[in-house]
Amino acid sequence: xxxxxxxxxxxxxxxxxxxxxxxxxxxSLLGVIILTAGYEFVRxxxxxxxISSAEHMNRLPNNDEDVREHSSLLRSGKxxxxxxxxxxxxxxxxxxxxxxxxxxxx
Length: 106
Hints:
By secondary structure, the protein is mainly alpha-helical. Helix content is 64%, strand content 4%.
């Protein structure tokens, strides 16, 4: 990465995305702003999912003492395990999108 004030024939993200005029510079700046706003949106969605999934996990019974009469005795632990697996998969996918997006923006 090289810091320069010269904006002629500047490559932004791809070899095809080049700045050749003042208008293309302004459009490129707006494009970078939109990309960065998208990244922040993905981060915020990830935070919200983590909060909601933590609240959901707190509501599930996690041991035999929390099992009530209205819940099945055969599947009481399985619901927690399935929810944890789904939660980890979604968190992993969101993290992968964040990492890809951050490298893309760099």
